[in-house]
């Protein structure tokens, strides 16, 4: 009968006839075996009893271990933008299953990463020994191939070319510095900087690592070979690329009919559209395409005034606004401020007004530069924030009053759990402002969601044509992911 013996902190299951003494006869001095030899038992426990006891003990031990907290994957942070191609290194806290105190401001990626080759000291020495021109020749070609294989979106191509131009300029400067030396061949002189081949054979193991590494990792290694100015430019271009690609991946819009609630009266406003990048319940009520004003509304209360057949002039339709909320001309661009008359609006009915809510945390402030570039292509824009947020008083910011919250604004989880707390106050201000009658379509986007005004206008125009011509299919306008 098999029995269990406890020896040197190990549990041995000994079959009948096996002797522990065999270990001392010729086995101790030899090489280690994959399993210890069986021997005499020291206890009288049966196999079944020992098996159940060992299993119960391991179960108790496993249950005593600290359990990871639920919901470890928080909202996408600045380091996760562009995952998996463009993101930063993995956050050690998120990778270990712990809560990252930095939250969405963490500069490292919170999304799980797959294991690959490790850049060990041997590969480091290979890179250090290579010339700047040789290494940039290979990495620039690899980066172009990786970008092509990944199918980076059109919105990221501008930032991508800016990144490539940094390394190309560094390569050209390196060639200029060596211009006094005799050229190797006429063929090498005629090649473009990005098509140059290294003068020395490239180490195969290093090439294998670069082929497996992410786009961001190769950029980081190539930037090390550049000068100080080149490194800074590469980092800035890479961050712009992360933001552009991250916006494109998370860009989500869908449309449906929106009701504007004024007390108990629901009015459908022709010519007004809501495109929201997070909530898929958004608006598209098309001016003049749904028949007469009586047909534009769906059985409103008898006391409700008829919906507007066309946008009213600003002076007649815009209610008085609170002094703290009335936006001045926003920024230096005249298109940001609402036009004085409806005639100043675009004639194609595609005047876009973009706005976003932000609590002005550190992560948001880093995105404002890129977001303003996108918003500049709209016909107007504004950023809404709460009165308790920091930051300078900028002309394109409007502060609104937030409803009382149970969670303090200073709480670390306030942004995560209350990120949308200012969205309804922002909408309330917008609906009572002159912006409503100065533009045709209103796009509410999050700062970390990419916005392409040109694409939005194109899709809206197609949507309007479908609404005018008629179609048996449901009319839904959507970009990117829908949640």
UniProtKB/TrEMBL annotation:
Q: Where is the composition biased (Low complexity)?
A: 42-53, 325-341
Q: Where is the composition biased (Basic and acidic residues)?
A: 174-194
Q: Where is this region: Disordered?
A: 23-53, 174-199, 325-345
State the name under which the record lists this protein. Answer: C3H1-type domain-containing protein
Naturally occurring in which organism (per UniProt): Symbiodinium natans
């Amino acid at each position: 009968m098999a029995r269990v013996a406890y020896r040197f902190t190990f549990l041995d299951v000994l079959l009948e006839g096996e002797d522990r003494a065999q270990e001392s006869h010729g086995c101790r001095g030899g090489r280690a075996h994959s399993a210890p030899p069986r021997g005499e038992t020291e206890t009288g426990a049966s196999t079944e009893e020992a098996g159940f006891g060992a299993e119960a003990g391991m179960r108790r031990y496993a249950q005593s271990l600290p359990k990871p907290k639920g919901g470890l994957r928080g909202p996408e942070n600045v380091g996760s933008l562009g995952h998996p191609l463009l993101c930063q290194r993995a956050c050690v806290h998120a990778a270990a299953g712990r809560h990252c105190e930095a939250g969405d401001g963490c500069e490292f990626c919170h999304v799980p990463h797959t294991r690959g080759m490790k850049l060990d000291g041997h590969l480091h020495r290979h890179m250090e020994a290579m010339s700047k021109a040789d290494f940039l020749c290979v990495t620039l070609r690899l980066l172009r191939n990786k970008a092509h294989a990944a199918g980076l979106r059109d919105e990221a191509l501008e930032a991508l070319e800016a990144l490539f131009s940094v390394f190309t300029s560094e390569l050209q400067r390196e060639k200029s510095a060596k211009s006094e030396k005799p050229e190797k061949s006429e063929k090498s002189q005629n090649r473009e900087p990005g098509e140059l081949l290294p003068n020395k054979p490239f180490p195969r193991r290093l090439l294998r690592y670069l082929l497996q590494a992410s786009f961001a990792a190769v950029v980081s290694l190539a930037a090390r070979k550049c000068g100080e100015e080149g490194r800074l430019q590469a980092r800035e271009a890479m961050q712009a690329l992360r933001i552009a690609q991250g916006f494109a991946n998370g860009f989500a819009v869908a449309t449906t009919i929106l009701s504007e609630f004024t007390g108990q009266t629901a009015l459908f406003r022709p010519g007004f559209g809501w495109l929201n990048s997070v909530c898929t319940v958004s608006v598209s009520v098309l001016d003049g395409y749904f028949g007469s004003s009586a047909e534009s509304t769906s059985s409103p209360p008898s006391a409700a005034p008829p919906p507007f057949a066309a946008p009213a002039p600003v002076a007649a339709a815009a209610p008085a606004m609170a002094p703290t909320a009335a936006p001045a001309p926003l920024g230096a661009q005249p298109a940001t401020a609402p036009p004085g008359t409806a005639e100043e609006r675009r004639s194609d009915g595609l005047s876009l007004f973009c706005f976003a809510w932000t609590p002005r945390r550190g992560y948001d402030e880093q995105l404002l530069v890129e977001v303003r570039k996108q918003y500049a292509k709209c016909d107007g824009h504004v950023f809404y924030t709460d009165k308790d947020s920091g930051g300078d008083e900028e002309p394109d910011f409007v502060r609104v009053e937030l409803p009382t919250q149970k969670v303090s604004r200073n709480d670390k989880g306030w942004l995560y759990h209350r990120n949308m707390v200012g969205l309804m106050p922002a909408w309330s201000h917008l609906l009572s402002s002159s912006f409503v009658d100065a533009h045709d379509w209103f796009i509410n986007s999050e700062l970390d969601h990419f916005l392409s005004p040109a694409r939005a206008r194109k899709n809206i125009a197609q949507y309007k044509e479908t609404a005018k011509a008629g179609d048996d299919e449901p009319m839904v306008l959507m970009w990117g992911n829908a949640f």
